[in-house]
Specification:
Helix content: 25-40%
Shape: globular
Distance between the termini: 40 Å
Structural class: alpha/beta
Strand content: 15-25%
Radius of gyration: 24 Å
Number of helices: 22
Largest sheet: 7 strands, mixed, barrel
CATH superfamily of one domain: Aconitase, domain 4
Number of strands: 27
CATH architecture of one domain: Alpha-Beta Barrel
Strand order of the largest sheet: 21-22-23-24-27-26-25
Bound molecules: alpha-methylisocitric acid, iron/sulfur cluster
CATH class of one domain: Alpha Beta
């Protein structure tokens, strides 16, 4: 039987398990990346393992999320990250150098290698043929220590791209179409592989836009083959020596196949408040817009922004709106500056922001109240922009640019006299790695002191799994609750390294009283339980959505379904993820219900159902768990940090 791209990469990295879809396998990790908002916790966790130097081929610590500090906290974090990178043998990408996924693609991505990143958009590097997976920070920390990464061998969805895109239709519309097919839920355990003759027409940055936003479908990762376009990109980045061809066998097997005819595609948008809420631009045309933001790890390559410059050239943005442009990396910014396109953007009225995440994570540029913001990033969850009642539409840079000129969502294929010019990938990118600090030499490393300001706390350690969990439903939430609901980012981001402080904001957008309620129960010696609907914990990889609830005494999450990274994070921090045997039982539970889950150890050992007693209602419900033997061990050990210390010492 032939092999698909994942078969090839996983088999070349396999250290444990059977390479069969659905089986848990352990793989060797070649590269890791972290960003500052998840990174401080990663290196605090790594420090507790007392390993002098990282054991990966290459690891990079980026600062790209929290850069516009209004207090000492971010600066403290930056110093800590710079010193840990030097000490432990990582590359350090300084603030301003760019968004982690973009820089990784430009300067470090290697086709055929495995990359693990403490950020859910790590699959961006699938665009260069890497198997790139977003995980919780602790999974990166243990990979830095040389431990394998465990995942369910993916069920591979093949997306066949046929033909070529029409003018005004770009890579963003391809991934929005994929989201229309797959939606944002129900794809846990799957991965996407792109193939078909349409792949040839997409350069690596366009492919990276597609694999980036694949994260929104909930798949483990997405990948493109490594072919002549990959070689061209690597040559243009001066890194052709890492090229390796990678293609699926003609008789490879797939879990399912989706075909997309590129010439049939029209410009699309993801409407409020989900990246899966897809509509054509022609249907939305005419909607008045208050703000346009172009950037993020999805759509801020040189080609993206040069195309925007071509559209804006000689024109001025609509007076009612504000246009923010944030280049994906310093390489992109420098190239725009040298070519004169930066001047074109500024002349048109764009506000140029630092090469960071900024608007995408609600760290600045929040829209006005009840505002409409058209953006090129990947997530439009309610409130994520920092304005609870704003409506966010996700579109391609080309649509964002014409919208900025007209002040309303505009379909350039049917209205106005617009000229579309796709920008070819440059023969040579501008290479300047002076903002990437290499690891210190081995002799130097010993002497380096880690710098800790008052914002740097301790990584919290969880407790071994109890045999009986007894307490109350602290909060009951609906379907598609994201980690942005559980642990808001934006203006709360600066507390990422300080768990007791950050925990004050658990479920802030849903129920501000939640942390207090948890602490009152904890003080009485009772356990906290969260009840969730479908696809609980969608979105980001932030392990704080497990750490902070754990800190507040949450011991179990009962849900209809839980997304992959979040389910792993819960286990890593000793919270038991449980699922309703019958989804309709969700309706039986209410906030404040008194629950007892007894005999947990025996149920886990013998793989039998767990029984939930609702004592105030005299009812009993069956619950199931989905845990590998290793995950059970992690829970019995009191979380992954305790478990791994035994393994790596
Ligand atoms: C996001 O896009 O939500 C983030 C911020 O990049 C997160 C990581 C984080 O919360 O620090 C992600 O995608 O994993
Ligand atoms: Fe940054 Fe946004 Fe990308 Fe997350 S999705 S890494 S916040 S740009």
């Amino acid at each position: 039987m032939g092999e698909n791209l994942f078969d090839k990469i996983i088999k070349a990295h396999l250290v444990e398990g059977n390479p069969i879809p659905g089986e848990r396998v352990g793989i060797k990790v070649d590269q890791t990346l972290t960003q500052d908002a998840t990174g401080t916790m990663v290196y605090l966790e790594f420090e507790t393992m007392h390993i002098p130097t990282v054991r990966t081929k290459l690891s990079v610590s980026y600062i790209d999320h929290n850069t516009m500090q209004d207090g000492f906290e971010n600066a403290d974090d930056h110093r800590y990250l710079q010193s840990t990178a030097r000490k432990f043998g990582l590359y350090f990408s300084r603030p301003g150098n760019g968004i982690c996924h973009q820089v990784q693609l430009e300067r470090f991505g290697v086709p055929g290698d495995v990359l693990l990143g403490s950020d859910s958009h790590t699959p961006t590097n699938g665009g260069i043929g890497m198997m790139a997976i977003g995980v919780g920070g602790l999974d990166v920390a243990t990979s830095l220590a040389g431990a394998p990464f465990y995942l369910d061998y993916p069920k591979v969805i093949r997306v066949v791209l046929k033909g070529e895109l029409q003018p005004w239709v770009t890579a963003k519309d391809i991934i929005l179409k994929v989201l229309e097919h797959l939606s944002t839920k129900g794809n846990v355990g799957c991965a996407i592989e792109y193939s078909g003759d349409g792949v040839k027409s997409l350069d690596v940055p366009a492919r990276a836009t597609i694999t980036n936003m694949g994260a929104e479908t909930g798949v483990t990762t997405s990948i493109f083959p490594s072919d002549e376009n990959t070689l061209k990109f690597l040559k243009a980045q001066g890194r052709e020596e890492v090229f390796k061809e990678l293609k699926a066998d003609p008789d490879a097997e797939y879990y399912k196949t989706i075909e997309i005819d590129l010439k049939e595609l029209a410009p699309l948008a993801a409407c409020p408040h989900s990246p899966g809420n897809i509509e054509t631009i022609s249907k939305l045309a005419g909607l008045k817009v208050d703000q346009v933001c172009i950037g993020s790890c999805t759509n801020a390559s040189y080609q993206d922004l040069a195309m925007v410059a071509k559209i804006l050239k000689g024109k001025t943005i609509d007076p009612r709106l504000s246009l923010i442009i944030t280049p994906g990396s310093r390489q992109v910014l420098l190239m725009l500056a040298k070519s004169g396109e930066l001047a074109t953007l500024v002349a048109a009225g764009a506000r140029i922001a630092e090469c960071t995440c900024n608007f995408c994570i609600g760290a600045g540029f929040s829209p006005k109240s009840h505002g409409v913001s058209v953006r090129t990033n990947n997530r439009n969850f309610k409130g994520r922009s920092g304005t609870a009642d704003a409506d966010i539409y996700l579109v391609s840079p080309a649509i964002a640019a014409v919208t900025a000129l007209t002040g309303e969502i505009t379909d350039p294929t049917t209205s106005g006299d617009w000229e579309f010019a796709r920008v070819d990938m440059p023969e040579k990118f501008l290479i300047d790695d002076s903002m990437i600090i290499p690891p210190a030499s081995l002799e130097e490393r010993e002497k380096i002191e880690i710098q800790r300001g008052p914002n740097i706390g301790e990584p919290p350690i969880s407790e071994p799994l109890k045999d009986t969990i007894k307490g109350e439903v602290i909060i009951k939430v609906g379907d598609k609750i994201t980690t942005d609901h559980i642990m808001p980012a934006g203006r709360r981001l600066k507390y990422r390294s300080n768990i007791p402080k950050y925990a004050e904001f658990v479920f802030e957008p849903v129920d501000e009283t939640c942390p207090q309620c948890c602490l009152e129960h904890k003080e009485k010696g009772e356990d906290g339980i969260i009840v969730g609907g479908l696809s609980y914990g969608q979105g980001s990889s932030r392990e704080h959505a497990a750490i902070c609830p754990m800190y507040l005494g949450i011991k179990a999450v009962l849900a209809k379904s839980i997304e992959r990274i979040h389910a792993d994070n819960l286990v890593n921090f000793g919270i038991l993820p449980l699922y309703f045997e019958n989804e309709s039982d969700y309706d039986t539970l209410e906030k404040g219900d008194k629950l007892t889950i007894a005999g947990i150890h025996e149920a886990l050992k013998s793989n039998t159902d767990v029984k939930l007693q609702i004592t105030n209602k005299q009812k009993e419900l069956p619950l199931k768990f989905k845990l590998s033997e290793r995950q059970k061990e992690i829970l019995f050990s009191g979380g992954k940090l305790n478990y791994i210390k035994k393994q790596v010492s």
